[in-house]
Amino acid sequence: MKDQERYNRGLEKLEQVDKQAGRDVINSLEGLPEDIGRYIIEFAFGDIYSRGTLDLKQREMITITSLLVQGDTSPQLRVHINGALNVGLTKEEIIETFIQTIPYVGFPRVLNAVNVAKEVFKER
């Protein structure tokens, strides 16, 4: 029952943050040998995103920064830029978050992230 509670809590948080994009990611994982989608829902959203202290705007700011720093994460960055907008971050706050990382990760990764953000902003 505890796993079902984590799963339900995670689904609720996923819906708050990523809406349809989150469901699309989970659906795209169906049929894989390991239940990666369930892990994402239970752990990332049921356990981590559901913790207190930080609000969803702060969590998404941290997430988009982490994805930018890793590089080569455009699909996930796209989902979480949408999520950041869904929870109330503005376009300006997202771009400023990326600018803040320039001294630490350099222009190429920031420019790549900004280009993903521009696509998301245009789509929305």
- What Rg, in angstroms, do the CA atoms define? 15 Å
Helix content: over 70%
Structural class: mainly alpha
What's the level 1 CATH class of the largest domain?
Answer: Mainly Alpha
Distance between the termini: 38 Å
Count the DSSP helices: 7
CATH topology of the largest domain: AhpD-like
Total domains: 2
- Gross morphology is globular
CATH H level of the largest domain: which superfamily? AhpD-like
Number of strands: 0
Low-confidence stretches: none
Short description:
This protein has 124 residues and is mostly helical.
Chain-wise SSE layout:
Blueprint: H1 2-28, H2 36-48, H3 56-70, H4 74-86, H5 91-100, H6 102-105, H7 107-123
Helix pairs in contact: 1-2, 1-4, 3-4, 4-7, 5-7
Q: What can you tell me about this protein's structure?
A:
This protein is 80% helix and 0% strand. It folds into two domains: 1-51, no CATH class; 54-124, AhpD-like. The mean pLDDT is 91. It is mostly helical. The longest helix has 27 residues, at 2-28. Helix 1 (2-28) crosses helix 2. It has seven helices and no strands. The termini are far apart.
Key terms for this structure?
7 helices; mainly alpha; 2 domains; globular; single chain; 124 residues; 80% helix; AhpD-like
